[in-house]
# Entry
Amino acid sequence: MKAKGAARSLGLIDALVASFQDALRTPEGVAEPVALLWTDAEGDWRGLIRPLRAVLPQLYTLGPYDPSARTGPAIWLKCIVDRSIPEVAPPAGTVPILYLPGVSRQELRAGGDCRPAYQPLIELQYRGEVWHQKNGRDWTVEAFLVSGEDLGLDVAQDARTHEAILRALPLLAETAMEGLHGRRLDADDFDKLAVPDPVRDLLRWMSGPEPFRKGLDDARWQAFCNVCRSEFSLDPEEDGASAAAASLATGGGRWDDIWQRFCEAPRLYPGISSLLREPGAGQGKLAFDASRSPVANEEAESRLRHELERAAILPHHEACERTLALETEHGRRREWVWTQLGESPLAVALEPLARLAARARSPLGGASVESVARAYASEGWLCDQAALQALACTKGASEAAIVPKLVRALYSPWLDLSARHFQELVAREGGDLRKFVRGVVGEKETCILFVDGLRFDVGGLLQEKLETRDLKVRLSHRIAPLPTVTATAKPVATPAHDAVEGTETLEDFMPVLSVNKQPAVASRLLDAIGGRSVETLEPDELRIPAGSDGGGWTETGRLDELGHKLGTGLATQIENEMERVADRVVALLESGWSRVRVVTDHGWLLLPGGLPKFELPAYLVETKWARCALVRGESVPAVPTYSWHWNAQARIASPPGTACFSKGYEYAHGGVSLQECVVPEIIVERAEGATKATITGFQWRGMRCRVSVSTNDPSVRVDLRLNWKQADKSIVAAVKEVGQAGEASLVVEKDIYEGASAMVVALDRAGNVLDRKATTVGEA
# Structure
C-alpha cells in the first residue's frame, strides 16, 4: 500500500496507473493475469480515455470497430489478449487493459445471464483481473477521487457535483491534486477547472457570444454557464449578453473586477464596445457610470468637437481661456477605456492644445538678443513643442478638421508677436547678428553629428530620448547666421567655417571657399572639413575612430526635407525621426567615440493654414525666397533689412513677424525669429561607469519568457510592458534581475495578454530603459 503523503503527490493519471499496477500484482507462484478488465457500467470514465492512451499504449476500449483508436467489439478484444492480431497487439511485456464502458463486473459474473455481445469476455475474468474497489464494486470516478489510498479528496455527494466531475474529467488529468486538498469540493470547484479564468471567458463570451459557444463542447459550455451563475449571478443561456452588458455598465461586486480586466486590455474584446452601445446597457440607471459608456463618451466627444470649433474663431485671449476650461471638463476622459480604443481622439488632442493655450497667453520678452534667446532656450520652446504635439494628433478626419484650426488660433498670435519683438532687438544691433554667431570647432574624440533643420523644441525631444538611454546629455543653444537657410548657415555649423568667406555677387545666399572661390556646396564643404584633420563618415557608416585631432563629422536626419515636402504633416514624422537620430548617436558612442556633438544649421516656422503673405515688389530685390530676399542695389524696401553673415555689405530683406513673401507656405525658414535663429547644440557622452545592457534573445514557452541579456551589471532587471516607457504597463508577475548568468524568466500570469504585442525591456537600478525588443506574448 502506498503511503498517504506519497499518494497525494500524484496526479489523477498517475494515481490510475499506480492503481492498475496494484491490481495486476500477483503473489509468487501465481500465474500473471492475461488482461485487466476495467468495468464501468455508467461509462463515466470515458472522458479520461484519450489522455490515458498517451501513457498506456496497452489500453483498449470496448466499442465500434476502429483499430486506429484501439477500439473494437468483445471478440476483437479477446484477440488482442491472445495477441493474435500482431499489428495492434499490446507492447511486449505489458498486460492489456480493457476498458468496458456500459459493462459492470456483476454482469460479467452473471455468466449466462450476461448480454451475448459481451459473453466472449466472461472467461477473461478468470484468466485476468478485474479492477474494482475492495468491496467488489466497480470503481466510480467519485469513489476513486475520495479514496484515501489514492487521492483522498473531500468531494460533495450530490447530483450536480457528479455532473460537474464528469464534465471536468479530461481537465482533472492535467490538474495538480495538491491544489484541491484542504477543502470540500463541490460542483463550482470542478466547473472552474473547465473555466480556469472565468472573468476572461465571460469577457470573451460577451465580445462574441456565438463564436465563443461554437468553440466549446457541451461539457465546457455547461461548466462555463454554471460558473457564471455562481460567480456573477448571470445565466448566459437565459439572460444573454445584453444582461451582462447592463451589469458591466452599472458595476458593483464582481462586475467591478470584470470591468477592470476589460480596461487592462480592451482590444482583446472588440465586441464589448458595441454591446455596451445597445439600449438598456446601464444607461439611465441611478448607478450609471459615464466612464463605462461608449455612448456617453461619444456624446462628450461631440460636445467637445463643437466647443473646439467655437474656440477656434474666438479672439486669441478668449480662445486660450476657453481651451483651458475644456481641458478641465474633458481631460479626465483620457483615463477612460475608450481612449485606448481610439474613441476619444479630441480628448487626447486637447492635452497638448491646453499646454499650448497656457503658454501662448503671453509672448516672449527680453531686453536684448541674448536675454530673449536665453528665455526661449529655457522654456519658450515648450510652446512650439505643444503646437507640434497637437498637430501630431491629427491622424483621423475628425481631428484633422478641427485641431489645426485651433492650433492656428492659439499659436499664430504668440508666434508673430514673439518674432516681432525679436526682430526689434536685432534691429537695435544694426540688423547684424554676426557677433552672436560662433562656428563649430572639431575636437579630438568628439564626433560632430549634423542634423539638418533641428529646431530647438525638436532638439529638446531628442535630449529626452537620449537621456532615457542612460546617456549624459547637455543641451545649450547657438545663434544661426542670417539668412537662416542651409546655404548660409550650414558652413558655420562645421569645423570648416573658417575656410569659407562671402562674395560681392551673392547667389542663393551661398558663400565660397577661401582657397579657390568656389561655391561652398555640400561636396566641397565636406572636403574642406576633411582638410581640418577631421575624420568624415558617411551617413550610416560606423568605424573605430582613427584618433584625428579634429575628431569626426557625419550627418543624418531629414527634418528640413520633410518639412518642405509635408508642411504641417511634418509633425507626425518628428517622433520617428528623433528615434533614428538617437539610434545614430548611440551607435557612434558604441563604435568608440567619447562624445557626440549634435549641431544644426537653422530652425523653421510651422503654421497650419499657411504663414501670412507680405507683398514685396519684385523690382526691389534680386532674388526672393519665402522668408528672405536679396535687396537690389540701393533699393529701400518697406521691410526690415539685415546684414548677410558672410558679407555685411550685402543687405537681406526679411518680412515682419511670421510673414512670407509668397503665399501658401506652412513650413518656411530664412527669416528672423526665435524659432529660426535660436538652434540647439547637444553634447552627448556615456555616463561614468554607465550600466550597459543589450537584450540578446528571448524564448517563449507558453506564458513564460526566458530573456538573455549581455550586460556589465548583474543587477540589470528585465520586464515585459505593453508600453516600454511606462512601468505601470508591466504585465509580468515580477520584474527579475538577470544575475551573473545574464538570464531571467518572466511569467505573464493573466491569459488575457496572450497574443498581445509587448516590449521586453532591460532596466538599470534607477529604472532607466537600457534596451528594448518587441515581442508577442506566448509566441512560439
About this structure: The longest strand covers residues 471-479. Residues 397-428 form the longest helix (32 residues). The chain has a mean pLDDT of 90.
